[in-house]
Design a protein that fits this description.
The complex is a heterodimer of chains A (406) and B (67). By secondary structure, chain A is an alpha+beta fold. In chain A, strands 7, 8, 10, 11, 13 and 14 form a six-stranded antiparallel beta sheet that branches. Chain A has a four-stranded antiparallel beta sheet with strand order 5-6-12-9. Chain A has a two-stranded parallel ribbon with strand order 1-2. In chain A, strand 1, helix 1 and strand 2 form a beta-alpha-beta unit. Chain A is globular, with a radius of gyration of 26 Å. Chain B has 67 residues and is an alpha+beta fold. Chain B has one domain. Chain B has one helix and three strands. The N and C termini of chain B lie far apart (30 Å). In chain B, 37% of the residues are buried. Classes of the chains: A alpha+beta (406), B alpha+beta (67). At the A-B interface, strand 1, helix 1, strand 2, strand 3 and strand 4 of A face helix 1, strand 1, strand 2 and strand 3 of B. Strand 3 of chain A pairs antiparallel with strand 3 of chain B.
Chain lengths: 406, 67
């Protein structure tokens, strides 16, 4: 048994493997190089590398495995002594051919050769380089991988750019989760995944990547709610759960919703008169990400707001004052699941953690195509340095929601 | 006995459901065709791995996701 897992985050796949006690070899295909549109898929592959069964019937899987194990398959490169019987024919007596000698172990591609080939090459050469850099180049090669995919995109027609757009999205999200992150990386990932899906709406691996971060109305199931259960069961076995570099966010844990739950009007705005001074020095850097990249009129979007203390001025959250709040004012006719958000303080006097707030909006069914700016503001207590001056500040946030998705 | 255990493991992965819907697989996956030569990182240690590493052995391949 061998596995290939379709997953953005390899560490989550490793935790899953540990939880399910999968002892068999598993490869990670974060870029969907296999170009499967759905999962799971089972294949029986003979000792010569020939696919002998695809999606064997689940109800009779034991018999199917037995037939596959018992069946003799001739090497297609050699003259056949007799034609191969179909895999679903009755189990017969033929025994396996002697095993062919294994080939040399696989090697990572030669990056220098791929760079040379891409220099004057076609889009496929640049895409191959980008893939190799993501898989084998380490975190330091992610900028070059993004450039390679973007160059590939510039050389290929939009109609055929689905795989490149998807892989570029994976690379952007990979950089977003690394120390090399740039503020726009997450939205870039969502934008490219959306472009990929536009080119092939039947590609469900791509669709799921957007739904993972998207609104609950569009979710088929919670994506990573298994993580906590896995940790509990792994610990119960006396093992230490594999550590995740990036914990699943609220969108990745959220349960699907069939009807939008509109906010009650009970919450009151915390600073309607704008009396709190603006964060002119930029103590806190805010990023906005809207999923999907463009929304159909009448549909929902999920907004991710990410707040990071500014390294350049050694900003810290002040946790000895009132907790951070954010107010969202939705445009007339829109629905919103919550206006007022509060983030509890950390346990220490000051801290530098990234804080995230997510909420959802429903665009009116008669909304015209275009970009609408949704207004919000955050109120927070910050300190300059660990022992520096602490202030209460307000930051205006404008969230661009693009209407007109397909 | 091994085959019953294998069948259970297949069932485990198949039960994940995930994005399983009625949709066509890419034409590269056809019964009778050779599995494409794709080298991917091993999940456990990141070393290069491909189906060719198992040449000479029959392989039950599971393509799946955790979500």
């Amino acid at each position: 048994m061998v596995g290939i897992i379709q997953e953005q985050h390899p560490d989550r796949a490793r935790l899953f493997m540990q939880w399910k006690q999968m002892g068999w070899p598993i490869m990670i295909d974060a870029l969907n190089e296999l170009e499967v549109a759905v999962v799971p898929i089972t294949m029986f592959i003979d000792q010569h590398g020939i696919i002998r069964a695809l999606r064997p019937p689940r109800r009779r899987i034991t018999e199917a495995v037995q037939r596959f194990v018992d069946r003799r398959f001739d090497d297609p490169a050699q003259p056949a002594t007799r034609p191969d019987p179909p895999i679903d024919s009755p189990i017969g007596s033929p025994t396996n051919l002697p095993s062919a000698p294994p080939t040399a172990p696989s090697k990572a591609p030669d990056l220098a050769r791929l760079r040379a080939a891409a220099r004057d090459g076609a889009s496929c050469d640049w895409r191959t380089l980008g893939q190799a850099l993501v898989n084998w180049g380490g975190s330091g090669a992610i900028d070059e991988a993004i450039t390679a995919f973007e160059t590939a995109l510039g050389l290929e027609p939009e109609a055929k750019s689905g795989p490149t757009n998807f892989r570029l999205g994976v690379a952007y999200r990979r950089r977003y989760d690394s120390a090399r992150r740039r503020p726009e990386d997450f939205q870039q990932a969502v934008d490219h995944w959306s472009r990929a899906l536009d080119s092939n709406p039947n590609q469900y691996i791509w669709r799921r990547r957007i739904q993972q971060y998207g609104p609950r109305l569009a979710k088929p199931y919670p994506f990573y709610d298994w993580v906590e259960q896995a940790r509990v069961q792994i610990r119960a076995r006396g093992e230490t759960p594999y550590e995740l570099a990036v914990e699943p966010g609220a969108a990745e844990l959220a349960r699907p919703q069939r009807r939008f739950s509109n906010a009650s009007d009970e919450a009151s705005e915390p600073d309607p008169q704008r009396r709190i001074d603006s964060d002119r020095r930029g103590f806190i850097l805010a990023e906005t990400v809207v999923v999907p990249a463009a929304v159909k009129a009448g549909s929902a979007v999920r907004v991710h707001l990410i707040f990071r203390p500014n390294d350049a001025i050694d900003a810290h959250w002040n946790n000895e004052a009132e907790p951070m709040q954010m107010w969202v004012a939705h445009p007339p006719g829109w629905l919103i699941d919550r206006h007022l958000h509060t983030i509890p303080n950390a346990d220490t006097a000051v801290s530098r953690e990234t804080r995230a707030i997510e909420f959802e909006l429903v665009v009116p069914a008669d909304a015209a195509a275009g970009t609408i700016m949704v207004g919000a503001y955050a109120l927070y207590n910050v300190c300059e340095g660990v022992d520096g001056t602490c202030l209460y500040r307000r930051q205006e946030i404008r969230i661009p929601v693009k209407i007109g998705g397909s | 006995m091994t085959d019953h255990r294998t069948a259970r493991q297949i069932a485990l992965v198949a039960a994940l459901g995930s994005a399983s819907i009625a949709a066509a697989d890419p034409p590269r996956f056809e019964v009778g065709s050779r599995f494409p030569q794709i080298v991917l990182p091993s999940l456990t240690d990141g070393r290069p791995m491909s189906l060719a590493d198992f040449r000479g052995h029959k392989v039950i391949l599971q393509v799946f996701a955790s979500w």
